[in-house]
Amino acid sequence: MSRLKPALTPAAERNRRYRDKLRGGPPRATNRFWERVQKTETCWLWMGSRTRQGYGMVWFHGQHWRAHRLAWHLVNSGVPAVLDVLHRCDNPACVRPDHLFLGSDAENAADRERKGRGKHELHVKITPADAALIRRLYRRGSADCGGPALARLFGVHHRTIYNVINGTAWACRA
Predict the structure, then answer these.
(1) pLDDT by residue (tens digit) across 5-24?
(2) What is the DSSP string of 89-133?
(3) Is 16 helix (H, G, I), strand (E, B) or coil?
(4) How deeply is 163 buried, as exposed, middle or buried, from its count of CB atoms within 10 A (0-12, 13-18, 19+)?
(5) Which residues contact 19 (CB under 8 A, 6 or more apart)?
(6) pLDDT computed for residue 21 by the predictor
(7) Positions in the chain short of pLDDT 50
(8) What is the pTM of this model?
(9) In CATH, what number does 15-114 get?
């Protein structure tokens, strides 16, 4: 005669689910995450959906996660909300736990600068020298040197020119 496990009470079942969630979820959900990872000699690449910047995205326990953040969570039992998960390898698709480390926003910015990446480097069209030239050339209301004319000359939106003139973009550094 086989012994049957007694059914859990509703409270015990809730506790079990909560413990599973703290441990990274039930084994099936955790396994499904790692099944979407392609392990290479260097990085472990997330093969699921990605953002335009190349970071993996995954739906886990009813919310969207960045794949590298979830990988850290699964291996290290959580990520403090005030910290970022950074990449040693500088590969946004990498989820290899030993390529990841925790850091603050300031440490993330310093890491980005150290690796030669600007916050919006792909979107920057005006250099500091261009900004100085725009300030010298600008004449309010001028057909040749007003905001719209300079915007056409530099290939940017006229609002960008006004932001340079007003100091909200490329503020003067004295």
Answers:
(1) 556 677 777 766 666 665 55
(2) S--TTB--GGGEEEE-HHHHHHHHHHTT--TTTTT----HHHHHH
(3) helix
(4) middle
(5) none
(6) 60
(7) 1, 120-122, 174
(8) 0.56
(9) 3.90.75
